Amino acid sequence: FQGSLIEQDLTGQHWVITAGPTMESIDPVRYISNHSSGKMGYALASAAIARGARVTLVSGPVQLTPPTGANIIAVKSADEMLAACEQSMSTQADVFIGAAAVADFKMKAASDQKMKKQSDTDEMTLTLVKNPDIIATLVLQKRAKTIIGFAAETQNVTEYAKSKLERKGLDIIIANDVSRSDIGFNQDENQVTVITKDKTWSPDKAAKSDLANQLVEFIQQYIKSAI
Ligand code: CTP
Ligand code: CA
């Protein structure tokens, strides 16, 4: 019923969306990750599919049912996520949305055996190195015509998000305040501020599915007016 009423105005477009956390191996039984649920990315995928887009959803490990009609690529680490994004955009996509909470660091050298406690010390030091910046890499490679990032911040939300927009060369950044426990990570609702080079828009707090529809509408308007 609902599907038949939604205008299929994204027909012919390919959208690639990342979602969820990444999981970085420490050893065969342990990992570094974060609390991202993947809900926002999955909601965006559903909203784009409902309007007729072909959607590739590159997903870190999450407990969600894949949206019907999405081409799901399941990944664990940031390195795998980047490779999957590059592969799915071997032909330039229309839209890329980086909704994943990519782990900023990975082990410099993950252990291939389970690490054992040392008996002579109470301390443990892991040496980490930066993960690739997936979205910045995709911008440099021009993998999509329009590239949208998220900015998870706990303070100076708009200011930090603006600097990320510029630093990474994004078209749009969607900022959310992850210090609030009622929205964001693992919640069903979200409140965001959408920032472009010359516009700032703060839609009301809403269910992630409602918000996803509004964000897809904003992106579509942005694409139309940028032409
Ligand atoms: N991102 C990415 N690859 C990374 C880190 C982040 O693609 N290695 C993307 C996220 O998917 C998001 C955007 O960059 O779309 C911003 O992520 P965020 O964690 O807020 O920014 P960082 O650049 O990692 O900066 P910091 O965590 O230090 O604030
Ligand atoms: Ca980060």
UniProtKB/TrEMBL annotation:
Organism superkingdom: Bacteria
Chain ranges of the DNA/pantothenate metabolism flavoprotein C-terminal domain: 10-221
Pathway entry: Cofactor biosynthesis; coenzyme A biosynthesis; CoA from (R)-pantothenate: step 3/5; Cofactor biosynthesis; coenzyme A biosynthesis; CoA from (R)-pantothenate: step 2/5
Region (Phosphopantothenate--cysteine ligase): 15-227
GO molecular function, one term: phosphopantothenoylcysteine decarboxylase activity
Entry keyword set: Decarboxylase, Flavoprotein, FMN, Ligase, Lyase, Magnesium, Metal-binding, Multifunctional enzyme
Catalyzed reactions: N-[(R)-4-phosphopantothenoyl]-L-cysteine + H(+) = (R)-4'-phosphopantetheine + CO2; (R)-4'-phosphopantothenate + L-cysteine + CTP = N-[(R)-4-phosphopantothenoyl]-L-cysteine + CMP + diphosphate + H(+)
Cofactor(s) the protein requires to work: Mg(2+); FMN
Binding site for CTP: D104, K114, P132, D133, I134, I135, F150, K164, K168
EC code(s) of this entry: 4.1.1.36, 6.3.2.5
Cofactor note: Binds 1 FMN per subunit.
Function of the molecule: Catalyzes two sequential steps in the biosynthesis of coenzyme A. In the first step cysteine is conjugated to 4'-phosphopantothenate to form 4-phosphopantothenoylcysteine. In the second step the latter compound is decarboxylated to form 4'-phosphopantotheine. Catalyzes two steps in the biosynthesis of coenzyme A. In the first step cysteine is conjugated to 4'-phosphopantothenate to form 4-phosphopantothenoylcysteine, in the latter compound is decarboxylated to form 4'-phosphopantotheine.
Family: In the N-terminal section; belongs to the HFCD (homo-oligomeric flavin containing Cys decarboxylase) superfamily.
Protein name: Coenzyme A biosynthesis bifunctional protein CoaBC
Native species: Marinomonas foliarum
Lineage: Bacteria, Pseudomonadati, Pseudomonadota, Gammaproteobacteria, Oceanospirillales
Name of the coding gene: coaBC
Full protein: residues contained: 181 to 407 of 407
